[in-house]
Design a protein that fits this description.
The protein is of the alpha+beta class and about 150 residues long. The protein contains four helices and seven strands, in the order E-H-H-E-E-E-H-E-H-E-E. A seven-stranded mixed β-sheet has the order 1-2-3-4-5-7-6, with helices on both faces. The model has no long low-confidence stretch (mean pLDDT about 95).
């Protein structure tokens, strides 16, 4: 697997991956992702794996988008295509962002759906702790857990 930094040129690809990863549930479209990528302090990383045939080359399978302001960061979105989930890709993407936060001595925050136990478990393995609940955070009314990771 290869991780590479991407910018505005990847907005369409990231929107397709976002839609697939979240099964069409509140997908971010190309315009929204482009607007996010244009913000100061935003980083996006794309995970690619070797395709099954030599003609395919590297295939994009996951992404993480984060934003940093001074000593705080926020993971805005992390997703892996359903065909590639449970293969360590999300873990690798998250490890990369956590390492960058450690280097910059930045505290990380993110929201995760209350029903997304798999994601909550993954974040917990990296030391993220729940610090609050955002009631009716999502469009469908579901609550979000606010998680924090601190360097040190």
């Amino acid at each position: 697997m290869e991780l590479s930094a991407v910018g505005l040129e990847a907005a369409r690809l990231l929107s397709v991956l976002h839609h697939a990863a979240f099964l069409g549930r509140e997908p971010w479209d190309e315009t929204a992702i482009g607007q996010i990528l244009a913000l100061q302090g935003v980083e996006a990383w794309l995970a690619c794996v070797q395709g099954s045939s030599s003609e395919q080359g590297m295939v994009p399978v996951g992404f993480i988008i984060s934003r940093y302001v001074m000593d705080e960061g926020e993971i805005l979105s992390l997703g892996v295509h359903p065909d590639w989930q449970r293969r360590g890709i999300a873990r690798s993407l998250l490890a990369h962002v956590v390492k960058r936060a450690q280097q910059n001595k930045a505290t990380l925050f993110l929201e995760v759906r209350f029903s997304n136990e798999a994601a909550f478990g993954l974040y917990g393995q990296f030391g993220f702790q729940q610090v609050a609940v955002r009631r009716r955070y999502y469009e469908d009314g579901e609550d979000a857990r606010l998680l924090r990771w601190s360097p040190g």
